[in-house]
Design goal:
Among the domains are: 60 residues; 258 residues, Immunoglobulin-like; 174 residues, 3-Layer(aba) Sandwich (Rossmann fold), CATH 3.40.50. The protein is built from eleven helices and 38 strands. The radius of gyration is 31 Å and the shape is globular. With 704 residues, it is an alpha+beta fold.
């Protein structure tokens, strides 16, 4: 008999079978293991994500210690600045309040002006005032650590970069506060008839290139980055950064008062960063922010101009310190006749992630303004860099209407993302420094916030590859890395310009481009009277000067008499010479520190350009100890003689965060390697796959 064939479309009925007792036990066991996985892995990840990513509006920043959340110290600062002539003396007070119920060690990495000379420090704990002492850096570290372990209150101040310092405070009592007072000196910038003062309160997060190094025995520094092959101290220059709403009410606020003793009538005082009020009493002016306290999320910038016709063309100051004479002289070359010079202009723009927000908008406006200065016969190119470097044109092209139109469209479309790989961009821009055919000058304009950690390697690269180029840096953002920008321009024989917001783009760049189109004063020679050896002056070799730039010299051992003669060369083989009567010197203070800082910088320049660091350590150390200066080899340390913390009580580390710069697209940087919910999402996804597998297994058991 033939088998019966099923009709088309007929499906055999599915027969289900009952699960055995053994199979049910297996399913119960699998369910139990899944529940345990959820308990062991997912819950800690939720806790970690919630603790490390502080919610906006919480009003309190916390750091993690083990599995506990601890409140970070509350920070307030006060700046009292006195400007006399060309120097500013600042008293900076940092108050750290411990609102937790644990003894704390606070670590705070903060910026100072790029030319600051920190020369004094005190610590105030309760009614006790401890004066800091300058020490060799490793000795200061040993003394501080010994005091910390013994329960004594101590403070230490280290320099990480010329514009980046770290304060450490050991044994801050629960519910109490400790104040560290620093005194530092800086030279006032004078350019094109305008005096400029800048007080940084926060920093732009630095990009850290290189491969991570193996973890070793390192002092806890609170940084979010690990040391790399290119930035050995990355953990010391990457402080945690949070939004203004992430800190306790009243924390990260600054009060500022600037006293201007100009010696000449001042016509106008302005600030592009804050609203200000001023009180005048003769030639003395007191300037404060209109708000009683300001958020520490941007540089405080102040400018003032002498009354028209009272601009200084020369100034001399004399100081005697420890039996030595110090003479400081400033000379401003007068305006020269303009010459028509053809030039190759290479515009370089940073499009890395740190430039997102207001910074990239400022940068685009800066480049568009630069294109407007080009004349027929000039050549140009545009280079952008982030994680990669890209040229608009393979080589520089003529400044025709078509090429300029294409460049403007390209610039308007630029966006910020990626890392700050600056070295390839410098190489592409300098290109050996060879002039394009038919041009007289090769000028490179670098527009960036300078948010890099490998400054020394980049300085060395500029020194090697500059050739005949001139490098002009334009600092963008509310808290740029001014140390990098100023030093890069100095190594590049150009000038440095800072732009804080869009309203400044036109005026700042107009001044810059006027300089770039003006002939430079080169081959400058300085002759001091009475056969004085100019080898002890700083700078030891005067670089090129552009229109409106002053020349400032400080010499140790020079007497305030006779004439200082300065000569140089203008384009077209024209000579230039000026004389300055030293007998007109006014009394001054701080000249010895300015001289010592210049000598230290000269020695460090040798290290930046490739000379082994061991050859400069001893002379830098000697200068720093003599003049009480914080340097890479010296630190201030203050230690209370009386123990305050019982040694059996635990001491909790506390990283004091900085505020993210105003206008920055990022909101916080707090241990980014682990602060995102990526581990949570990956674990949840894995558990989801396991659940799907169990369900598939159950479904299969029910099928025939």
């Amino acid at each position: 008999m033939l088998p019966v064939q099923p009709l088309p479309g007929y499906r055999r009925p599915v027969r289900h079978r009952r699960l055995t007792r053994k199979q049910l036990r297996r399913m119960e066991g699998a369910s139990l293991w899944l529940a345990l996985l959820m308990l062991l892995f997912v819950q800690p990840l939720f806790v970690e994500a919630s603790e490390q990513q502080v919610a906006h509006g919480s009003g309190q920043f916390h750091f993690l210690h083990g599995q506990e959340r601890q409140a970070a110290p509350v920070l307030t600062t006060d700046y009292q600045v006195t400007v006399t002539g060309l120097l500013a003396e600042t008293r900076l007070r940092q108050r750290f309040g411990n609102d937790s119920d644990q003894w704390q060690e606070g670590v705070y990495t903060f910026p100072l002006p790029e030319n600051a000379s920190v020369h004094a420090m005190t610590m105030t704990a309760g009614e006790r005032v401890i004066v800091g002492e300058i020490r060799e850096r490793e000795q200061a570290k040993r003394e501080y650590e010994a005091a910390r372990e013994q329960g004594r209150q101590a403070a230490r101040v280290d320099q990480q970069r010329p514009n980046l310092f770290t304060t450490r405070l050991a044994n801050i009592p629960p519910g109490e506060s400790v104040t560290v007072e620093l005194r530092f000196q800086q030279q006032i910038l004078y350019d094109s008839g305008e005096f400029q003062l800048s007080l940084p309160t926060t920093l732009t997060p630095r990009y850290i290139p290189g491969h991570p190094e193996a973890a070793g025995q390192r002092e806890w520094a609170g940084g979010w980055a690990m040391p790399t092959s290119e930035v050995a101290d990355a953990n010391r220059i990457t402080p945690l950064q949070v939004g203004v709403n992430d800190v306790a009410t009243g924390s990260h606020q600054a009060t500022i008062a600037v006293e201007l003793r100009t010696g000449v009538p001042v016509g106008r005082v302005d600030s592009a960063s804050h609203d200000i009020t001023e009180e005048r009493n003769g030639n003395t002016i007191i300037v404060t922010p209109s708000a009683q306290a300001i958020a520490m999320d941007r540089d405080f910038r102040l400018t003032w101009r002498p009354e028209r016709g009272r601009e200084p063309t020369a100034a001399v100051f004399h100081e005697q310190w420890q039996g030595e004479d110090y003479v400081m002289a400033m000379l401003v070359p007068g305006e020269q006749d303009q010459e028509s010079l053809t030039r190759e202009l290479v515009l370089v723009i940073d499009t890395s992630g740190s430039m997102a927000g207001d910074s990239i908008r400022q940068a685009r406006e800066a480049l568009l303004a630069a294109l407007d200065t080009l004349a027929p016969g000039d050549a140009f190119n545009v280079i952008q860099f982030s994680s990669q470097t890209r040229r608009l044109f393979p080589t520089s092209v003529s400044a025709t209407a078509d090429n300029l139109g294409r460049a403007r469209r390209y610039i308007r479309g630029l966006a910020a993302n990626g890392g700050t790989e600056m070295a390839p961009a410098i190489q592409a821009a300098l290109n050996g420094g060879d002039l394009s055919p038919g041009t007289d000058l090769r000028q490179v304009v670098f527009v960036t916030d300078g948010a890099v950690g490998n400054e020394q390697a980049l300085f060395s690269q500029i020194h090697r590859q500059l050739g005949t180029s001139r490098l002009f840096t334009v600092a963008i953002g509310s808290a740029p890395n001014r140390h990098f920008m100023r030093q890069a321009a100095r190594f590049g024989r150009g000038t440095y310009t800072a732009i804080g917001d869009l309203s400044e783009v036109a005026t700042r760049l107009a001044t810059l481009f006027r300089k770039m189109q003006s002939p430079a004063l080169t081959d400058i020679r300085v002759s001091w009277p009475d056969g004085f050896d100019a080898g002890t002056q700083v700078p030891d070799r005067v670089g090129d000067l552009y229109l409106g730039e002053p020349m400032v010299l400080v010499a140790r051992g020079a007497k305030p008499n006779g004439e200082l003669v300065v000569s140089g060369a203008l384009p077209g083989d024209r000579s230039w010479q000026r004389s300055l009567a030293l007998g007109q010197a006014a009394p001054g203070e701080g000249g010895h520190r300015l001289w010592a800082r210049g000598q230290v910088d000269r020695l460090l320049d040798q290290q930046r350009t490739g000379e082994p660091g061991t050859s400069i350590r001893e002379p830098v150390l000697a200068l720093a100890l003599e003049h009480h200066l914080v340097t890479p080899f010296t630190s201030f340390v203050a230690i209370d003689s009386t123990p305050s913390r019982p040694v059996e009580d635990p001491l909790e580390p506390a990283a004091v965060p900085s505020l993210m710069p105003a206008g920055s697209a990022a909101q916080r940087i707090a241990y980014p390697q682990t602060a995102t919910p990526a581990p949570l999402l990956m674990t949840a996804g894995l558990i989801g796959l396991m659940l799907a597998g169990v369900l598939a297994f159950i479904r299969r058991l029910w099928r025939v």
